[in-house]
Amino acid sequence: MSAFNFNGVTMNSDSQRGERSNNGLRFVFVVGGVLSGLGKGVVTASIAGLIQAYGYEVTAIKIDPYVNIDAGTMRPTEHGEVFVTEDGGEIDQDLGTYERFLDVNLPKKNNITTGQVYLAVIQRERALEYGGKDVQIIPDVMNEVKRRILEASQGYDVAVVEVGGTTGDIENLVFLHAIRSLSLEYPSVTVMVTYAPFLKNVGELKTKPTQHAVAKLRETGIFPDFVVVRSELGLDEPRIEKIARSCFIPRENIIDDPDLDSIYRLPLLFERQNFVSKILQKLELEKKKDDMGPWRDFVEKIDRAKKPVRIAIVGKYVAYGNAEHKDVYISVIEAVKHAAYNLELKPEIKQVSSLDIEKKGAESLLKDFDGVIVPGGFGESGVEGKIGAIRYCRENNIPFLGLCFGMQLAVVEFARNVCGLEGAHTTEVDPNTPHPVVDIIPEQKELIAKRMYGATMRLGAWPAVLKKDTLVHKLYGRKEVSERHRHRYEVNPKYVGLLEKHGLVFSGTSPDGVLMEFLELPDHKFFVATQAHPEFKSRPLRPHPLFFGFVKASAGMRLF
Ligand code: GLN
């Protein structure tokens, strides 16, 4: 028996009969061709953002074809940033892009991976829930994908679903079948994102990879309604005609998507091509309103931002081979941009390798920056470089913002160089330190001993209470805050008194007062750190107060 009921929707193995559901839900599917890294996430977020601005309840879902259950166990060099949701998901960074464009908090179930899908199917099989039938990729695995998409879509008018990977990859085939099946049951639109390379030696933009990608997608039974063509400089009329003709897609449904200096311009570029209005038309929905005004104002601020503010992000994941890593600290970078643009400043952000700082010294690498961020991190590599950067900021009155590991290392630096605790460290890096000023949270110790690494850190949103009249309190403008976390280590409560005696102010703690969540130095231009990851909650139209204060201080502006 493979039919089952899910929230009133009957799912069964032969659910490809083309029956239309009438519960009002509609889908936009976004798939990719030619190559990865085209910015499908930004395309998805822009489509969802515009549908929302036109008056509909929208959610966005990311499918990741890898076998991992989540991104939490993946090396950032492998997969970019691990984004953390309010409900503690360690997930794909695209969800961060969706949250920033939609200004909503998305739950972790909006990130579906091959690992989750197979785990659920196998657990169901072990519980005899398939009643002795042989369990197959089509329909059983496919139905589990559909079930998950539907579960995440419940209650929305439109769900925009991005299928990760490239059409033709072995991994995403079952997901393509799932969306094809859903598109027979629900009003749906499929958008394919491709790439048109410019060949310098012939001086021509080539459309052939796009033609092949569309043909490849059709092999799975999916006929894209729109093709968004990424390119360096944009499409010209003959190229648009050619793609339309060879892919049998109306000319007006070929969307031009050249490289932009800011991803936040993309919704406006789509608007100029009436892209999302055409999607709504196909879904038989009307444009009920137009709430894009604040977004347009924000983009105008980007246009006006001329005065530079130079920010260094000191981390170890800076380069991968010959390329600079753009994704590892993506939410931190975006949070700086949100603050800077809203102040009409031009952010010049550079990732500085903490390993290089170890070799060349903090001053030589950081002297040309207005402010320094030490973001989250794990492990030993580059740690002394990060500590050196923090010391340089503290001693030279340079605005500093420490995030998670950045806060822990600020405590290490202060303990060593102000409190005189020689060899002070976090036990993550030096388990035998004489002064374990940062130590593992007791429950975490047990989990590690059992090798239970996946999804076991202190994760998701946790409340904190701020100390009255501290800088952090004034920046937030309220006493109780909630921020997202992802860590196993904490400031050791045994050292708090000593650190405070030497002038470090813990400006916020967990409500029970046990965990130190924020710190600051009163006699400094801006020296603030937090155990949390505030970068995950910064939005273009609502920059995060800590980043806002940090960028202001870096630009030499008055804080209040
Ligand atoms: N490695 C540190 C910990 O586990 C910090 C983690 C982080 O920066 N996200 O506590």
Can you give the mean pLDDT? 93
User: For this structure, what is the CATH homologous superfamily of the largest domain?
Assistant: P-loop containing nucleotide triphosphate hydrolases
Strand order of the largest sheet: 17-14-18-19-27-26-25-22-23
CATH class of the largest domain: Alpha Beta
Percent helix range: 25-40%
Total domain count: 2
What gap, in angstroms, lies between the N and C termini? 66 Å
Ligands in the structure? glutamine
Would you give an account of this structure?
- It is built from 20 helices and 27 strands.
- Helix 4 crosses helix 5.
- It has 560 residues and is an alpha/beta fold.
- It is globular, with a radius of gyration of 25 Å.
- It folds into two domains: 267 residues, 3-Layer(aba) Sandwich (Rossmann fold); 250 residues, Class I glutamine amidotransferase (GATase) domain (Rossmann fold), CATH 3.40.50.880.
- The protein has a nine-stranded mixed beta sheet, sandwiched between helices.
- The chain binds glutamine.
- Glutamine binds next to strand 23.
- The site of glutamine has 10 residues, from strand 23.
In short:
With about 550 residues, the protein is of the alpha/beta class.
What topology does this entry show?
Blueprint lengths: L3 E3 L2 E3 L14 E7 L7 H14 L4 E7 L11 H4 L2 E3 L5 E3 L1 H9 L8 E3 H13 L10 H17 L4 E6 L9 H13 L2 E8 L2 E2 L4 E2 L2 H12 L6 E6 L5 H11 L6 E5 L7 H7 L2 H8 L10 H12 L2 E9 L3 E2 L2 E2 L5 H13 L2 E9 H7 L1 H5 L4 E4 L8 H14 L3 E4 L1 H13 L7 E2 L9 E5 L1 H8 L8 E9 L4 H6 L3 E8 L1 E3 L4 H6 L3 E5 L6 E5 L6 E4 L14 H10 L6
Parallel strand pairs: 3-8, 3-9, 4-7, 4-8, 9-12, 12-13, 14-17, 14-18, 18-19, 19-27, 20-21
Antiparallel strand pairs: 1-2, 5-6, 10-11, 15-16, 21-24, 22-23, 22-25, 25-26, 26-27
Helix pairs in contact: 1-3, 1-9, 4-5, 5-6, 12-20, 13-15, 15-16
